[in-house]
């Protein structure tokens, strides 16, 4: 591709990247209203792998085989964020910062060690490792925990100054660990982008390393024509991936992210993007050429095998979990932690969730928060129900609709309302009725499943003075109210939504979670 097509390539890439990052930002920033943009999250590589979304995975692999690592510069939000930091650095620093790059040897030992460890984590379902290194999840935590918190704070400050224009909003529930991880990730990515462009993508990111292996065999590649090249080295100085060896006229395709800056910056028209042509550009000894092709082919097959093994094991594990979760006749083990509706079990959630916090961001009731120690080490920062701050809306299924990794399965309203994620447990000694209050019934009023009834305790009759205070009650209720009324919970009807626990004035009701949902 020559002439004006060079500029068209870069303009198209920048335009698509801009639209992509705007959509991803709106997905996290626009609250529950942005649920229609959830498809952007489901187009990310790691969530698609965890969800065994074959259509998306095949599409991304074919895209990489065709044009190389375009995913990293157009679809991945963390990759585009690094380009934004790089752009700001150039604008602030001027020409000196614009040409600050240069070729560096690939750190393959680090790259592929991280990739191998990540593959093991995905296969074994080690959620904390999956969460830390997934680029999409890292972007999600930055948007939710850092910018989301700051945005709500600014909104609430403005609501005090201009109450007519700004309404007060509730903070998204985050903890110190989750916020710290998000801040550290933002600082590290920003620092590496300012200093070295795409260093994070080409040393730490497992998606970049995996797609880099596949992109060695891509059909369309950046090519250098040695007949036109005058050896100025400008392309290498502006390559954010530091992958152009200007002395030897070679491009490391495993690190090239298809930004097309080199094409636009070449004054000689020596760089093009297209199908390889056998000429003086990359002429080598036939044996060496064949050897290089064999190495690329082996690396591509290794990468493909890695994806296939991980996907197959995830698929098989998911099928087993679905069968186990439907077994009747055995009461599930109870835990304090309550996982969201649709998460099937703690094990399923821990192995699938990358802690992107999209469900936490979208929850209209703000009942979800990042786990600290509720699920153990494997479940750090994954969503857990916190009924001390809110409860799960009986008529809401949004978290399952937006989850891109299949950690929270989408449920119909009927499915949700018949799924038991926990059981409310009542403590009589903590109830306000036991401590002198005649009638309460807040838990019964709050329960959307009609699982709570008020039952008289015939060992506790009311005194005449207490009965006089109930004179205005209907006759049938007054008859029952001759005795103190205490809540009774029907375990067959209680689904564990937490409305009773949240509304109870003395927290006499606590929901214990099920490790496997019923």
Structural class label = mainly alpha
Weakly predicted, low-confidence segments: 1-5, 279-292, 319-334
Strand order of the largest sheet: 5-11-8
What shape does the CA trace take?
elongated
How is this structure best described in words?
This protein is mainly α. Helices cover 49% and strands 9% of the residues. The chain has a three-stranded antiparallel β-sheet with strand order 5-11-8, with no helix packed on it. The protein has a two-stranded antiparallel ribbon with strand order 1-4. The longest helix is centred in the middle third of the chain and has 40 residues, at 286-325. Mean pLDDT is 82; it is low at 1-5, 279-292 and 319-334.
List the helices and strands and how they pair.
Layout: H1 5-29, H2 38-42, H3 45-50, H4 54-67, H5 70-74, H6 77-93, H7 95-98, H8 108-124, H9 127-133, H10 135-161, H11 176-196, H12 199-203, H13 206-215, E1 221-224, H14 234-237, E2 244-245, E3 250-251, H15 261-265, E4 271-274, H16 286-325, E5 334-335, H17 346-352, H18 358-362, E6 368-370, E7 383-385, H19 398-402, H20 413-417, E8 422-426, H21 442-446, E9 452-461, H22 464-468, H23 475-480, E10 483-489, H24 499-503, E11 509-514
Helix pairs in contact: 6-11, 8-13, 8-16, 10-11, 13-16
